């Protein structure tokens, strides 16, 4: 099974940005954790991060041509603004799970809207880095 993990803007700054919200572990730590979890589950994982909306759209389209089975996506701030990312997910029609490290539901009002959430079949928030592994398991279970 092939899974693509997409991380949006400022997630490359994990460990530096607002550690009280996102924790002290780095983006590298996150990638290591995802790679290990994928190995344990016999999943072929690709991890991608970008600060640019169009690059994320391009990577979602890439997933179509590379026959990716499932997408785990933390669009970060684009969650709350991007119709383009929502439309890209709809276009490729690959099962996707939305992930947030923090508990977005208990944060500012502007974080209560999720465009990608209108496509994703599950949403995991507030579980820290573990949320990505949880999301991977949701995809594996769905595709079983
Ligand atoms: C986030 C939550 C978003 O509201 C925020 O813009 C982020 C990270 C999270 O993982 O908790 O950058 O997606």
Describe this entry's structure for a reader.
The chain is an alpha/beta fold. It has a single domain (2-143), classed as Dehydroquinase, class II (Rossmann fold). 38% of the residues lie in helices and 18% in strands. The chain is built from five helices and five strands. The protein has helices spanning 19-22, 27-40, 53-65, 83-92, 130-143, and strands spanning 2-7, 44-49, 70-74, 96-100, 122-125. The protein has a five-stranded parallel β-sheet, with helices on both faces. α4 links the parallel β3 and β4. Residues 10, 74, 76-77, 79, 100-102, 104, 111 line the site of 1,3,4-trihydroxy-5-OXO-cyclohexanecarboxylic acid.
Could you give a quick summary of the protein structure above?
The chain is built from 5 helices and 5 strands; from the N terminus they run βααβαβαββα. By secondary structure, the protein is an alpha/beta fold. Helix 2 runs parallel beside helix 5 and helix 3 runs parallel beside helix 4 (83-92).
How does the SSE layout of this entry go?
Blueprint: E1 2-7, H1 19-22, H2 27-40, E2 44-49, H3 53-65, E3 70-74, H4 83-92, E4 96-100, E5 122-125, H5 130-143
Parallel strand pairs: 1-2, 1-3, 3-4, 4-5
Helix pairs in contact: 2-5, 3-4
The protein binds 1,3,4-trihydroxy-5-OXO-cyclohexanecarboxylic acid (DQA).
The site of 1,3,4-trihydroxy-5-OXO-cyclohexanecarboxylic acid has 10 residues, from loops.
Keywords:
144 residues; Rossmann fold; binds 1,3,4-trihydroxy-5-OXO-cyclohexanecarboxylic acid; five-stranded parallel β-sheet
């Amino acid at each position: 099974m092939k899974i693509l993990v997409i991380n949006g803007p400022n997630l490359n700054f994990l460990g530096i940005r607002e550690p009280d919200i996102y924790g002290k572990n780095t983006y590298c730590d996150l990638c290591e954790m995802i790679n290990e979890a994928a190995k344990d589950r016999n999943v072929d994982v690709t991890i991608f991060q970008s600060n640019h909306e169009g690059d994320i759209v391009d990577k979602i389209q890439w997933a179509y041509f590379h026959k990716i089975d499932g997408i785990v996506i933390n669009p970060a701030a684009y969650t709350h603004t991007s119709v383009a990312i929502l439309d890209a997910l709809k276009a490729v029609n690959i099962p996707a799970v939305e992930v947030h490290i923090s508990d977005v539901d208990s944060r500012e009002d502007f974080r209560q809207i999720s465009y990608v959430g209108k496509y994703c079949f599950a949403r995991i928030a507030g579980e820290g880095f573990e949320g990505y592994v949880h999301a991977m398991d949701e995809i594996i279970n769905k595709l079983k």
